[in-house]
Write a structure and sequence with these properties.
This protein has 2 domains: 124 residues, 3-Layer(aba) Sandwich (Aminopeptidase), CATH 3.40.630; 166 residues, Gcn5-related N-acetyltransferase (GNAT) (Aminopeptidase), CATH 3.40.630. By secondary structure, it is an alpha+beta fold. The strands form 2 sheets. Strands 2, 5, 6, 8, 9, 10, 11, 12, 13, 14, 15 and 16 form a 12-stranded mixed β-sheet that branches. The chain has a 4-stranded antiparallel β-sheet with strand order 1-3-4-7. The chain is globular and about 60 Å long. The protein is 36% helix and 28% strand. It has 11 helices and 16 strands. α2 runs antiparallel to α7, α5 crosses α8 and α6 packs across α7.
């Protein structure tokens, strides 16, 4: 391909993660471990746009092909990944990576291409939608971090402690199962199919069991009532998934979970703790995260439709709204079965 960029599969390069760690702004979502989770669970094939100089990786845009209805293939960077910025340490611009991905997509007959990230691309292409991205600076030290929290956040942390909530960190498959029960309850409330359990089993196999993250559970009287999935990459920690049992919300377990994770990672020498992405219209979640006094950025997603030959802007579909209504009414076992059957097609 042009500009010295080729398409490669990181799973075919044992040294991929070692090389990737030296690339600025790389994350675990660019890693071979995350690629293995997606391929082992859903059967996707990695198509990563890369540039290398000898053993030095200088640019990477992870992409996977996702099957859709009527045998229409979509390009995704990346499926089931909230944010995956194209990264580069040389003169290759995100614009060049995007243009090469679109050229490849036309040749492959993609229906559309989704890119979740891409700094500077808004200068060239219309934005599909925008999200908030929150990061806590851990280098300030735990006491200084805590003092910046909102007073309501501090009260909720103290309420959880006085209520007897305890935090357990673990990397075992049993902790994954405990988290997944809470995850399914949360997805039902949100009106979304949960990922199949195989997805979390592969997270355990390729991420947690290789010491690249852990499960944190808030436990009350021996029962997990809230949980998070945390990933590690270099000295950066990422909150990836969170879930809770709404019946115990008045104990504020999630506030204690987040503070305990921030404090633990600061003590372990991590530099940043990212809080994940938040929709611009989800003011409740945004205010909850802002209670932890993070740095807030606006970042962008892009979607190109090959049939219309143009970049799209987000529009809520009637199908999506109806699906949420139906999902909220489904029993959890039925919802899990539907997610296992259909999730790979959503990407």
């Amino acid at each position: 391909m042009n500009n010295g960029i080729t398409i490669c599969n990181p799973l075919e390069h044992p040294e991929w993660d070692t090389r990737l760690r030296n690339l600025p702004d790389s994350s675990i979502f660019h890693s071979a471990a995350w690629a293995r989770v997606l391929t082992d669970t859903f059967g996707y094939k990695p198509q990563y746009f890369c540039s290398a100089n000898g053993s030095f990786l200088s640019a990477a845009m992870p992409v996977m092909e996702v099957p859709g209805r009527h045998r229409k293939i979509r390009g995704k960077s990346l499926p089931f990944t909230d944010f995956c910025e194209p990264i580069s340490s040389n003169k290759i611009h995100n614009f060049d990576l995007m243009e090469l991905a679109l050229k490849y997509g036309r040749e492959r007959g993609w229906k559309r291409f989704d890119l979740r990230g891409g700094s500077g691309l808004h200068e060239h292409h219309p934005i599909f939608c925008s999200i908030f991205f929150h990061t806590v600076d851990l280098e300030k030290g735990e006491q200084d971090i805590y003092e910046t929290f909102r007073s309501s956040t501090k009260r909720n942390i103290k309420k959880a402690i006085s209520g007897g909530v305890e935090i357990i960190r673990d990397q075992s498959l049993e902790s994954v199962k405990a988290y997944y029960r809470l995850h399914c309850l949360t997805k039902k409330r949100q009106g979304i199919f949960p990922q199949p359990f195989l997805f979390f089993r592969k997270i355990h196999e390729h991420v947690l069991d290789t010491n690249q993250g852990h499960i944190a559970l808030a436990v009350l009287d021996g029962k997990p009532v809230a949980g998070t999935v945390i990933f590690h990459w270099n000295k950066d920690a990422s909150y990836v998934y969170g879930a809770s049992d709404l019946r115990y919300q008045h104990y504020r377990p999630h506030n204690l979970l987040m503070w305990d994770s921030i404090r633990w990672h600061a003590r372990q020498g991590f530099k940043t703790f990212t809080l994940g992405v938040t929709d611009l219209n989800n003011d409740g979640l945004r205010q909850y995260k802002k209670g932890l006094s993070p740095t807030e950025e606006v970042r962008h997603y892009y979607r190109y439709d090959f049939e219309q030959n143009q970049f799209l802007k987000h529009q809520e579909s009637l199908y999506g709204a109806l699906r949420r209504i139906v999902c909220r009414k489904m029993p959890v076992p039925v919802l899990r079965a539907a997610g296992t059957l259909l999730y790979k097609y959503y990407g």
